[in-house]
């Protein structure tokens, strides 16, 4: 077994206590990771091949072709980034600037607005280590970490003992789940208080909680016991260190963040509450932070040539750019939009020159003009990444590969343009 610890890149929890065993230059065993993490770290069952126009190619020809596609495009799109190191993301941002490209990532249709509000200091946040050591009230809102981030409950939020939570989950922590269905997380937390709300009722439930926190009678248009809302408001009020773990269920339900801002403002008048986005891909937050540092926006951006001027907004999102057919080539890094976006939107990708950089074969790669295999982040390549709570984590290379890292591939494409 390895004498050092490695980081799992299976999700944005970036667990840093992973031990491995290697055999014949491959990972044979992965210790401490959850099943999702083991699957990620053991690599692809179907690795991507280097191809140009559907034929096997060498890396130099593939990079030259990719560079030529991006150079000849008037409005290229660069999309993906959530499974890339921060170093690769920064090169990609430079490439977008050089080619006047649209640049976006999956946060554009999930946690982007929450992360933007945190970076703009409109929402109070904390680290996962703060949660482990201090949190006494943990709310999983539209989040089901026992499936999405399997070690969240055991490492940080519910079960572990912390400096100020010596008795752990038995007596020192209250876990609350607010969701439209009884999730696995609601089942696991022994003393959980589960609040089942109707679909898309999150904003209204927040308003009702604000009323409860203001000692007013909460009202909802749906049938919900007022006493239970008041009881929840009371638990939140008494929290010494509360945290709301924001899941996709909540993000998708809110049309705007105003109800969440109001709730957090009220909570911090009467109590002490923080918020952490339950980011999925291991370095999605890194992309948001890196782009924000460069441009002041977290996603949905278009560079206007090398001037550094940018346009930002919904129309520059990957979804709108594809729907409106406003891009004429695309570079996809570590993502599979043909599988993950609605077909009516993603289909346009099959009509334009497409480049895929990824360690593994996927549907988008099968329709790409150029495919370039890259090293698997955190296993075959090192770098840094940003955990869901904004803490930077160093990734170490564990095993060798013949593939270049995505950072090296993007650097070579940039140099070739
Ligand atoms: Fe990896 Fe996430 Fe599982 Fe931790 S919880 S071992 S980071 S997949």
UniProtKB/TrEMBL annotation:
Gene3D superfamilies in the record: Dimethylsulfoxide Reductase, domain 2 (3.40.228.10)
Superkingdom as given in the UniProt entry: Archaea
This protein's record includes keyword Oxidoreductase: yes
Biological processes per GO annotation: methanogenesis; respiratory electron transport chain
Enzyme class: oxidoreductase
Keywords in alphabetical order: Oxidoreductase
GO cellular component: membrane
Molecular function as annotated in GO: formylmethanofuran dehydrogenase activity; NADH dehydrogenase activity
Name of this chain's protein: Formylmethanofuran dehydrogenase subunit B
Keyword Oxidoreductase on entry: yes
Organism ancestry: Archaea, Methanobacteriati, Methanobacteriota, Stenosarchaea group, Methanomicrobia
CDD domains linked: MopB_FmdB-FwdB
UniProt-listed Enzyme Commission number(s): 1.2.7.12
